[in-house]
Write the structure tokens for this entry.
Amino acid sequence: MAGERKFIRESTNRILIKEFLIREVEGAGFGGMTIQRTPMGTRINIIVERPGMVIGKGGSKIKDITSQIKDRFHVDNPQIEIQEAGSHAALNAQIMAEKLAEALERGWHFRRAGHSTVRRIMSAGARGCQIVIAGKLTGARHRTEKFSEGHIKYCGETAKQVMDRGFAEAKLKAGVLGVKVGIMKPGVRLPDEILIKVLDKKKEEKTKPIKEERQVEKKEAPKEVQDKKSDDINRLAELPGIGPSIVKKFKKAGVTSLDEVYAMNAEDLSSIDGIGMKTAEIIIRELRKILE
């Protein structure tokens, strides 16, 4: 039970730290954070769009945030690293949610702001996105507006893996608007997508004759056997267990000499219509006695 309490306490602490950072770096474009324990302490990696606003003049703000995290949340030796979102800011759901909330607070119409954000996300290469704005949009009653484009996963393990989600609040005179942004990451592969590889026919044609020549060299009969007069396929009928019907099947397949039969293996013989694997093995065994 002590272990379970520890996990719950750490998860709760992680959520509280995230909410604290969202408030402290407001306006800098908070894009998420990761917490990792190291032998030297606790490493907190923060993704922001404008790192200068988080660091402050001479690093004063980042030092203040570090001391507050250590005192308020009892984190052992916190080390904060700032990572710039850069060109991937339009694919970060949390950053886009905050930008949309800021646009609504500046007086943008919710439809104009929603469609503009969708276009920006899709032009950055996302496979799909959905924006949900909820609150008092046009009147005294609460309602919800959705803006969607592309492919979206709503639930299940697949949605957890391929969807990046962010949430922000826009504080207006009429009330608070909630903004949710979900982005399907570019380049993800869904479970129902199948990749079919098409082989190059030209390469197959180049390699096929070479393989056939090698097979012929391996199956070529010895010189002593070639010198013997064994061209008559009818001699197969002299073998024990082989009758004239088998000889007819060889003739039908275009085999006219014992040398050709000798060059075949059991699989080649069994591929002839009407000749099974057992019969092929008998032919090979008895034919070696005659020719060799």
About this structure: The radius of gyration is 38 Å. Residues 218 and 263 are 9 Å apart (CA to CA). Residues 2-24 form the longest helix (23 residues).
